[in-house]
């Protein structure tokens, strides 16, 4: 109990004093996570919509595979990305290992199936509702997908937020590909793991509380901007 109380006090002090190391870690965490969410959304949202609209032979298998990949172990993703980006790997010439870019790649692989799966569920319901209308006006597949993506933008925002929540708390994969290098690839989750291993529980808890507060703040801000709970609307 004392550790939790001390962690709260330490977190408050770090925030109030605008601790430079904390600010740097928070900004890097946001840089990596937001970058991964943007890339994953660009890939996952249209993919989910495309799977909802199109019918093809192995569609059920692709959907099942996508849903299965939602549970992909992060450490395995980190290991695979590490092998690809290492000096002896096929992408070693890019020198991306132990950089924020490598962390973005790992997080993108982890959260893209999640975003695509949620998007597919949302767009499938809209497609069932607008199917006859969109076909009757002779829209192309691309126009149908764009229309459904726009009309379901609030539900799709939830998909991206789910990806953000998964990515911001990720530690296994980014620890492997990022290396937790101070002032280079250290983010909130890897800093928490480091401080815990050193027995510095107060600082680890402080960083943990900052991580939770950051996730709540980002989600509340996006929720407010999306106006999903406007007055007079259930």
Automatic annotation (TrEMBL):
Topology of the protein relative to the lipid bilayer: Multi-pass membrane protein
Gene3D superfamilies: MetI-like (1.10.3720.10)
GO cellular component: plasma membrane
TM region(s), chain numbering: 30-53, 65-85, 97-116, 201-222
Alphabetical list of InterPro entries matching this protein: ABC_perm_TupB-like, MetI-like, MetI-like_sf
GO BP term, pick one: transmembrane transport
Localization terms from the record: Cell membrane
Superkingdom of the source species: Bacteria
Domain ABC transmembrane type-1: 26-222
Keywords for the protein's UniProt record, in alphabetical order: Membrane, Transmembrane, Transmembrane helix
PANTHER family xref list: PERMEASE COMPONENT OF TUNGSTATE ABC TRANSPORTER
NCBIfam families named in the record: ABC_perm1 (NF038017)
Protein name: ABC transporter permease subunit
Organism for this UniProt entry: Shimia litoralis
Phylogenetic classification of the source organism: Bacteria, Pseudomonadati, Pseudomonadota, Alphaproteobacteria, Rhodobacterales
